[in-house]
Amino acid sequence: QKRRDFIKISSLSAAGLIFGAQQLRSAIPPYSQTELGDFGPLSSQRTPTYCEVCFWKCAGWVYKNQEGAIQKVVGNDNDSNCNGRLCPRGTGGVGMYYDEDRLKNPLIRVKGKDGKQTFREASWDEALDVVAKGLQKVKEEHGAECTALLTHGSGGHYFGTLLKAFGSTNIAAPSYAQCRGPREVGFIATFGEGLNSPEPTDIRDTRCLVLIGSHLGENMHNGQVQEMSDAIDKGASIITVDPRFSTVASKSKFWLPIKPATDIALLLTWIHEIIENEWYDKDYVERYTYGLDLLKAHVKNYTPEWAYGITTIKPEVIRETAREMANAAPSVIIHPGRHVTWYGDDTQRLRAVAILNALLGSWGRRGGFYVPEKASVPSYPHPEFPKPQRTWRDAMGGKYKLADLALASGVCDATIPSPDLNCSIKAWIVNGTNLIMTLPDQRKTIEAIQNLDFMVVVDTMPMEITGYADVVLPECTYLERWDDLRVVQGREPNIALRMPAAEPKYNTKPAYWMAKKLADKMGLGDYFAWNSMEEMLDWQLKEVGSSLEEMKRIGVKNLPREYGALYFRDGEEIEFNTNTGKIELYSTALAAEGFDPMPKYTPHMEPPAGYYHLNYGRAPQHTFSRTSNNPNLTDLMDENTLWVNPKVAKEWGLKNGQPVYLENQDGVVSDFPIKVRVTERTRFDSVYMVHGFGHANKKLSRAFGKGASDSQLITRVLVDPIMGGTGMRGNFVTFRFEKESEVKS
Ligand code: MGD
Ligand code: SF4
Fold first, then answer.
1. CA–CA separation, 203 and 154 (whole Å)
2. What's the pLDDT score for residue 589?
3. Nearest atom (ligand 2) to Cα of 221
4. Ligand 1 centroid distance, CA of 434 (Å)
């Protein structure tokens, strides 16, 4: 008997809710993307916000119609993340507010006399009581360190404060170990600092942009895409390395359709070419870097001919592209990418990217990487957090010491009892992350959840994760709430305000309200000493020379730079935050931890006969799994398709539009079929799909059963030994024409 049955929120026993939902549905104005252009007269009043549809956080204005209904979100002209223009997802963000499938009331898991588990609607007071007591019980029985927060998005700050006040620092975000962690560690090992978000890539002034598996354009990070398009107009050359002919590949001077899993070989060969031909920036390298001779010896044998056999990229193309970068230097960017957890050697691959940038002298240079600044906005005063007796690191057995954030996958590991742990994690707060679709190896995630004493999920939608919760707390959308100030780095330090454009729909509440109420119930109220968000924000804003009143008017405030110029000055002495004070081509920190101080190429597994690399990526209309039920965005794209090379399609007799199931190397078959799209744009050894589809929760009326889920098929996880990132690209799939083949699993 499983401790936690998955509960479809639709199977609520409370008939009143179903009736209520239908009533509300009919009250919603008919609303679709096609009608988006026809707003009728808008009210002249607008309220500032920043977008939560992805984590680029563009600042915008929310407009209502004359009846007071939210109609439109547009970009804020003064915001450098968006320059007045939102991307299609950001514009469609209004659909999150109007989605009639939203969570509407707090829910508590109950067991009926027949043993059947269901959710029962509860008042906020009762639901928060259950959460406070659930956490307190774990504290009494096991210690506060046995609780964890898994979070993505703005509410995480408030629950993080609550958890730290409670006595635990196990705060993990999938945006680290499932996304950009390896690049942060790789860049810290090289330059002594990470990239953060938005990445300080000076794309607008670049002369050469190299994209390695980072498909800007499909991966719609607004300001970056705008800058790329401007750079192309100004004649910058783009080099795209991707097994798939992505949209940006079509705009590129060079497309290198690399054999999957061989990127490090190409990068090492580029390094070899640049060193052997003395194309590196001699002054810069001499002044700022450590380890050139060691690196030169290390890459000696990595010739283009050697790489050809591995990557399938012709030697002359490797030479020509290396020269292209060198000619543009220092205004060249080997882009670090964002979702970089591929094959488990990701920190080393990103080290190679960092080294290449260092050799070409692009770090700190115009058209390369600028020196970002971020406003320092103080936190509202609160007592010191208690020091936890154990942290997530203790559960890691000394591994991943270079990780600087808790790992979501590590929290899963630490939740499954093992003889090495003196106590496993017993309670999770899950905020704004759909872990079932987000962490690889679903069976393990579910096993971890089954081992919990208590799990509370804070979400706006009935996603897969909510079905496993003991308590579900429905958050209102970003359009209906106050939130923390957006404080992000940029060419100029800047802050942006989010305020509610409308009252929360249904019985939903903002995360800050939930965390503060919980703190009161748990005797931790001092950590949330403000009376209202307005009071707290006004205090913070006055500390940086603004005010709530001003920010309501302007939405975004750009502040003057405080710490120096945007680029290194000629001959400037700089001390980097590494052991040697230099940019480390040879990493002393990695060597000290017993890892390769310079990246090496190691071959990865090849697909067995009849199987193909499972490649996945993004679409400009969607963000992960969070948008796949959004009424506006499903109008633009409502399912994913499977890109299949014509040669493969012929071998299998596949036709365009034909639905197929996929089975992976471990016998896992996709829950739902996916339609084939026959295209030359993917290599014969890989298939490709957009991540985030194939939802299994029926309550998502538009997303349920649409397309296939890549997450479900990712059962082999290649863990990065340096920082614990979960490499997800080592999975292979084959085609199945009927669901019966599932018996194998
Ligand atoms: P989503 O799947 O979009 O992203 O993983 P997640 O952060 O889990 O789930 C977001 C959840 O937040 C949804 O349940 C949504 O309903 C909820 N939500 C949306 N808005 C709000 C809000 O305002 N408040 C609250 N409380 N909840 C909200 C992303 C992660 O996934 C990342 S960053 C990457 S890069 C990885 N990408 C990736 C991949 O490409 N393929 C596979 N297979 N796995 C991946 N995992 C990683
Ligand atoms: Fe929103 Fe698009 Fe900006 Fe992301 S890039 S924050 S989805 S407008």
1. 27
2. 97
3. 5
4. 5
- What separation in Å is there between the alpha carbon of 435 and the centre of ligand 1? 8
Q: What is the pLDDT of residue 8?
A: 61
Nearest-CA residue for atom 32 of ligand 1: 175
Ligand nearest to the CA of 464: 1
The reply to whether ligand 2 has any atom less than 6 angstroms from the CB of 627 is no
The response to whether residue 57 sits with its C-beta less than 6 Å from ligand 2 reads yes
- pLDDT of the residue at 217: 81
For the Cβ of 719 lying below 6 angstroms from any atom of ligand 1, the answer is no
**In the chain, ranges of CATH 3.40.228.10 domains:** 185-372
Nearest ligand to the CA of 465 is 1
Ligand 2 atom at shortest distance from the alpha carbon of 54: 4
Q: Where are the alpha helices (DSSP H) in 680-736?
A: 710-713
Class of domain 185-372: alpha beta
Rounded to the nearest whole angstrom, what is the distance from the C-alpha of residue 331 to the centroid of ligand 1?
A: 34
- The protein residue with its alpha carbon nearest to ligand 1, atom 6, reads 433
Looking at the chain, which residues constitute the CATH 2.40.40.20 domain(s)?
A: 612-744
What pLDDT is recorded for position 40?
Answer: 61
CB of 634 closer than 6 A to ligand 1?
Answer: no
pLDDT of amino acid 554:
98
Beta pairing partners, 63: 46, 72
CA–CA dist 121, 127 (Å, integer): 9
Secondary structure of residue 126 in the 3-state scheme: helix
Domain at 612-744, CATH from 3.30.470.10, 3.40.1190.10, 1.20.1260.10, 2.40.40.20: 2.40.40.20
Residue 97, helix vs strand vs coil: helix
Gap from CA of 473 to ligand 2 centroid (Å): 25
Would you say 484 and 49 are in contact if contact means Cβ atoms under 8 Å apart?
A: no
What per-residue confidence (pLDDT) applies to 25? 23
**Residue 199 and residue 558: Cα distance in Å, rounded?**
18
Phi–psi pair at 741, nearest 5 degrees: -60, -10
The helix-helix angle for 263-276 and 346-359 (nearest 10°) equals 20
Ligand 2 pocket test: which of 49, 55, 76, 82 has the largest number of ligand atoms within 8 Å of its C-beta? 82
Distance CA 650, CA 306 (A): 32
pLDDT beneath 70: ranges in the chain? 1-4, 6-40, 740-745
The Cα–Cα gap between 36 and 50 comes to 20
